[in-house]
Amino acid sequence: MPVSIGMTLRPLASATAICVGVISVSGPAIGDTTAQLRILETTDIHVHVVDYDYYADKPSASVGLAKVATLIEQARAENVNSLMIDNGDLIQGNPLGDYMAKRRGLEKDDVHPVYKAMNLIDYDVGNIGNHEFNYGLDFLGKALAGAKFPYVSANVYQDDGDLDPSNDKPYFAPYVILERELLAEDGKSYPIKIGVIGFVPPQVMQWDKANLAGKLIARDIVDTAHRYVPEMRALGADVVIAVPHSGLTTAAPKALDENATYELSLIPGIDAILFGHAHQVFPSDSYADMPGVDIRSGTINGVPATMPGFWGSHLGLVDLNLRRSDAGKWRVTSGTGSVRAVFKRDGRKKIPLVDADPKILAAVAEEHQATIAYMSEAVGKVEAPINSYFALVADDPSIQIVTNAQKWYVEELIKGTEYDGIPVLSAGAPFKAGGRGGPDYYTLVESGDIALRNVADLYIYPNTLRAVLLTGGEVREWLEMSAGAFNRIDPTSGAEQALLNPEFPSYNYDVIDGVTYEIDLTQPARYAKDGTLADPDAHRITELKFDGAPIDPEAKFIVATNNYRAGGGGNFPRLDGSTTIIEAPDENRTVLANYIFELKSFNPSADMNWSFKAIPGDVNVTFSSSPSASSVLDGTLPIEAAGQADDGFAKYRMIMK
């Protein structure tokens, strides 16, 4: 059954419940006057209600709706005319969400902890995000029943199976028109109608095919807006707020665009845009060079807009200036978009800027504590220890388990699509590999039960999974760029030579599983750190094979990776976003956790698909790692202990013959 269909009208209520217009006057008021309307947004909370990192099992300065609640209270105190809107991706995304959906469940009259918090904050409207569908429609319906505010999503319809779009019915309310009282500059209160319309990426039909096929249909965001915005105006909306769970890009528009915010800004009748999905902040310097964008005023083609990060990192604000005509109609004359953060960075430290609201923490305390206990439970069993002591210099189990999980996920995702049958490779990098993190900054998971919390030790970043479509030749160039992690070795020298290039971040050293290859350290690096071609004649990658045969440079391959790499992070050739074919809704570490749960028990050994090419002679090639690494040397790797190194590290020698 649909959660709701059609238009919801919220009647005028008391000032306490509405937070829009706290003064009312009897009888109609006429005359030209002005007012300010503040629209507040949260987005991509992903169940981060409490300021807590469940993976690290400690408080967090940078996340939490409880922290944003403090900013909301401050922002409301500055302008009595305010609306509070959430833009989705709310009920899935961290262990609290998994605990509620997969372990505890929701019975009749149960209120999900996110709605315990949001009802206290007094939201006016919520929009559906793509992750709302991850646990299925039944759970979504039970969760939404606990919200004391209406939900919208205009481009999702019931699948009636008749292939006739003209009679399709919306699954959710496409929009709401809120009837409110607006306190004007003249000290009087006047009625106003505020329309709020929401959108979700049409890709939900691919991302959640198992949950939605045969039940829902998702349509184009921009086409849907062209249909409904004039209808909202015709029904008397003085102000129209678009709430797309969609990112911002100036790429050429196409049908069923995932990121359609820019196109929405060009549609007449939209006064403000609250967007999200991309886990970015707008306005910010990241968008400074985008045509039509003014990051000083927070506008997109003149439309005030905001995108407040993710996980409760920011509060979004749009401030509109309105003028009321003698005829009693309000219109927007100008506006700005901005954000407020719950923390700031000081080097590697995150400094909190606000405290969490104790009312929110108290409301979800029971579920929070249950989630902490849940995170300590085993999700699988590892048959041997996993460490990353040698992840930069040899094929390594801490990377292998990640690349295996990514490959498994993408292969499932492409079944039945145009990409089905194209070989899937998988790229992973060592994240905890010493360096500036110090001699203790390595992954270490003991054999035996592995808990959800251990997953964070294997994948420390909140990346989301991406897949790119490349040729065999482009896969080779990816590996050539990655091989810049190593210094060039002189085969004629017996002097000690450092293996690792200290200027090359460990997280940019990608191993690609699904192919086999060797790295010739006697060759110069083909690429410079900035991705430019340093030596066109250099080739460190040798014996590159797929299925035991030399790789076909024209053959197509899908490579599973993360949003950082696929979007240009690390300056790798052909990885600039243009080759991305899958922008998955899940984080890489969520994929990893689900993969381990699926396996139940696994042997973390690496498949040894890459190695250094042998160097004849008596070269002395060394590198640093943890002193503890010596305890895991058992003769299976061409590595031997070589004494002490600086800053608490130990020195090791590669046997290159």
Q: How would you sum up this structure, described in words?
A:
This protein has 657 residues and is of the alpha/beta class. It folds into 2 domains: 36-371, Metallo-dependent phosphatases (Purple Acid Phosphatase, chain A, domain 2, 4-Layer Sandwich), CATH 3.60.21; 377-654, 5'-nucleotidase,  domain 2, CATH 3.90.780. Helices cover 21% and strands 28% of the residues. The chain has 16 helices and 39 strands. The strands form 10 sheets. Strands 1, 9, 10, 12, 13, 14, 15, 16 and 17 form a 9-stranded mixed beta sheet that branches. α3 packs across α11 (365-375), α12 (397-413) packs across α16 (588-599) and α13 (452-458) crosses α16. It is elongated.
Provide a short characterization of the protein structure:
The protein is an alpha/beta fold.
